[in-house]
Amino acid sequence: MLDFQNQTLNISHLPRFENVKGYPVDKAYLKVLRILYAFWALFIFSGLFLLDFFVGLPALAFYPILGFVVVLFSLIILDIELGFHRRQFGIRDKDLIFQKGFFVFRQTIVPYKRIQHVEVKQGLVFKAFKIYTLKVYTAGSSTGDLSIAGLNHNDADKLKAQILKVADLDDN
Amino acid sequence: MTTDFSTPQRQNFRGILVIFLMDLAKRIKQNIYAFLPLLSSNIRENYWQFIVIGLVLLLILQLLYSYKSYLNFKFHIENDRFFLRHGVFKFTDVDIAFDRIQNININQNLIQQMLNVVGFEIETAGQGKAEITIKALSREDAVELKRILLKHKADQVKGDEKTKSASSQSVKPETLFHLNLKRLLKVGISSNYLKGLGLVFAFFATLYQYIEDILSNFYDVDVDETYLNQIPETVGYVAGFIIFIITAAFLVTIATSVIKYFELKITKSNNEFEVDYGLFKRVNQVIKKNKTQVFEIEQNPIKDFFGIKNIFISQASSEELNKKKKIGIVGVTDDEIKIMFQSLFNLPFDQNFVVVKSSKRLMIRLMLRYSILSIGIGLGLFFWQNLVVSIIVFSILTAIFSYVAFKTVKKSHVGVNESLMKINSGSIHTNMKYIGTHKIQSLALKRNWFQQHNQHADLIIYTASGSERVSYLKYNEALKMINYLNYKVESSQLSWI
């Protein structure tokens, strides 16, 4: 068991990230995700059927590929639909927390003072729904960086302002 | 002869040849598969004129390209900034302020050794690829340039701690460690043979077609067919082949480590270590105290028997780290490890840690992964040979993998104390990674579907030299761990670099 005896610090008094109140990302993001997966599903399935129709794939190749794509898409759709309410970000005095995922649930903590720079992006579909992606870069490996997609204008601005206020960033 | 770096300079004149040969080597490496058809005598005989003409054309194009890239590569120094313009079809301008320079490496590969020039690398800590490589400079120029580029840094340090640097500047760099050939051989013998085995296999796989060609020319038989028809005779042949492969892997492994770490030397000056090693490619790297992120100690039963260990030091880098980027100091004794550890962390080597172990459930995950591999091999053998062979190999593999998985679970744990964390991993070998808690960049907990239901989590620690993962901790212990580490990062006044 974990026991931090012999220390001036009592482990139970440490701030606990699991109790931080999470804010969900904008509902519009779910619409964007639905549009994206519907588009890709349509694209890939029609491509597959067209290929089969015109070139004539052997059944031994066609059905396994079809099965694989169906399973893959159902997993992706399940992950998006069931996991959407888990996409939440939390703000504390000294760090930013983000969590997401249904099959693989991932919670990331990035301390403000390790942030190298912040970026607010907006893709094509995002523009139509007026939502943004906030990207936070650290000096660590890129998988440790945070990317919070689906923030509305208000939240994105607030988050960026909070980070810029606290983090000790370079001026560039 | 001194060179004036304030006007735009080209590389050393011999650089044309260096650039050409290095580019050529790179091209050949990239397109090695394009040469595979040449192994067939049929293609060689019928198309040799085209092949020769094509190769000559490519060679000429490459020469022109390399010459142009030599002409266009110009650098100079102005107002404490390093400027570089390079490119062939489009120009790239690079501009680095001296105080952004993290590190300078001077090294020499075989081509550069023959032409008596050195390679010059400037590392920065920026995002993305900001590294600069000058392929050919004379040694005097390189040393001079290094001095100028790092002068600013030295001045800064002097300003910070006048008395300290004044006294340490006068101290000559002392040699801390020198790896002799005997110990280097021990390192080779105690290395992981899997890599050597892989090399040997890759070598034979590419040459298999060729060998078959030669053999069938000699004996006028099809190797595949006789092989299948005369199974009893081939058992002896297979055994001989396996022994040959193992011996080759053994020798290749020893040779690669001897070539790589030949004459490994560490010198200590001020607050940093300088490491030199290599037989054909002499590498010079600097280990800086504040740039060091992960201090890794590797041991295995054979190394224990010889009384040696390996250290790998990862430094902050703009690129993702791989094994190549780690600075390896091989064949060190416990005492030398203590000295290195102490001067890099300012802490005694003997540390007490509060330890959290990986749960036994990790075994299930590992066995699942290994079983896919062993089932795959078993099925392959079943179709290639017969059921008996496949079952024998499958059971042997399963037994080995169970043992490896068991050892992995037993060794996997993470420990923390006031200023350090220690990540223990390994199976047959043991890996201990020491990380200063203030070097952590961000933290994550990852729980897959099973872990969400059986209350476990993987802890991932991101540093400026890559990520470390501790698998299958109990969820509440992982929470305590991540909260503690996070508290340590946020309350520390120390910088990660």
Let me know the CATH homologous superfamily of chain A: Pleckstrin-homology domain (PH domain)/Phosphotyrosine-binding domain (PTB)
Discrete helix count of chain B:
15
Tally of alpha and pi helices of chain A = 4
Number of strands of chain B: 20
SS elements, strand count of chain A: 7
CATH architecture of chain A: Roll
Q: Averaging pLDDT over every residue of chain A, what do you get?
A: 84
Strand pairing plus helix content of chain A: what structural class? alpha+beta
Number of domains of chain B: 3
Radius of gyration of chain B: 27 Å
Percent in helix of chain B: 40-55%
- What structural class do you assign from the helix and strand content of chain B? alpha+beta
* Lateral arrangement of strands in the main beta sheet of chain B: 13-12-11-17-16-15-14
Quaternary structure annotation:
heterodimer
Portion in beta strands of chain B: 25-35%
Order of the strands making up the biggest sheet of chain A: 1-2-3-4
Kindly provide the name of the CATH class of chain A: Mainly Beta
Largest sheet features of chain B: 7 strands, antiparallel
Measured between the Cα atoms of the first and last residue of chain A, the distance is 46 Å
Report the β-strand fraction of chain A as a percent range: 15-25%
Chain pair forming the biggest interface? A-B, 38 and 38 residues
Domain YdbS-like PH (chain B): 70-148, 264-319, 422-484
Transmembrane segments (chain B): 47-67, 192-211, 237-259, 366-383, 389-406
Pfam families (chain B): bPH_2
Organism (chain B): Mesohalobacter halotolerans
